[in-house]
Amino acid sequence: MFIQLASHHNENNAFPLLNKAKELLNLTGFNLLADAAYDSSNLYDFVHLQSESTDFISHRTSSKRPF
Q1: How sure is the predictor about 52, in pLDDT bands with cuts at 50, 70 and 90?
Q2: Per the count of CB atoms within 10 A, which of 5, 21, 47, 53 is most buried?
Q3: The pTM is what?
Q4: Nearest 5°: phi and psi at 43?
């Protein structure tokens, strides 16, 4: 299953949506598709560590998260 996030100004918009989707659909192993506005360590940790899932998020040039 893919979850796609549209362009918004920061990752804070993603957490309520992802938490609700995870709660309602019992998601693990999903793929998250988002643009560079969502490039953050917090979102990376949520997707990889808490949800055991994969992200496809463009990196910003100032990104500090692993490639």
Answers
A1: confident
A2: 47
A3: 0.65
A4: -70, -40
